């Protein structure tokens, strides 16, 4: 799509083939970079791409969850100037802003950056047999033995093999692209015949909490947090197919049918069906020693508005946020309060993810807590 006015003897390609055919051609583009190049050909091409919202449409094709966004906001470090433009100009400026935001979002959605485990904390489990020894927090540990003791989560026992269980986790960002999930059933090496307590299948849900900011709770040594994972506390924006599990003590990988944009940073592993009966009580259990949600965080360049716990529909773009250093955050003034609070939130979560990986689970700070408690060295990790 390099044909401009000069290549057609003074005719613009868009005028030459007409708007309907041009629209059909542009809608065939499936790479955000191609749309960006097309918008750079000429002013008429740029206006055509912006007015038809091709970048937004492409993002929705890549990740249908993008349709949950009803508005975009560009958060800058300086206060926006008041405008006296007409309503027609204002509509174009709004579409132009969307074009910029969705252009960068599209690039982030198809990025080839390597995946990592995005799980930050355990929110809770549907049941736990012996708490806290068999807590869901154990599933953050990649090993099935720690300090010569077994490390795993165990459900409560059931007579019915169809009773499901679930494990719910907080991801390291409010916006994550998840490609695959991994789960390892636990092999009870301390029981006769070394039984493996796998589920029959696993299904994944992703979404966000409906609780007010700062009110989300996590598993502690005193509380297994079963009430916090009730479905009425969450809005699920994606549900995967059911993936059959093997009764094998290996980290099993389940590739999602497509990359999924998790809006709100919550993922639930639904464990469907039981396969193994425990000899001592003649009941069926599910046990997991490790779980992962593999993907990439889109923060700090992209955040969501969490002021309304029932509505995560505002997509915020922070140009240049990934290039900030600690001095930019600590020395911010009132006019950039939103910018700095959003970036500080991301860096706090990144810091906790690093500590969690190195030292084990840590308690999550509420938004009202003092971000200054994180040291300069911590935030450079």
Automatic annotation (TrEMBL):
Signal peptide range in chain numbering: none
Membrane spanning stretches: none
Coiled coil stretches, renumbered: none
Superkingdom of origin organism: Eukaryota
Pfam families assigned to the protein according to its UniProt record, in alphabetical order: F-box-like
Residue ranges of every copy of the F-box domain listed in the record: 24-61
Gene3D superfamilies the record matches: 1.20.1280.50
InterPro entries on file: At4g00755-like (IPR055336), F-box-like_dom_sf (IPR036047), F-box_dom (IPR001810)
SUPFAM superfamilies (alphabetical): F-box domain (SSF81383)
Name recorded for this polypeptide: F-box protein
Classification lineage: Eukaryota, Viridiplantae, Streptophyta, Embryophyta, Tracheophyta
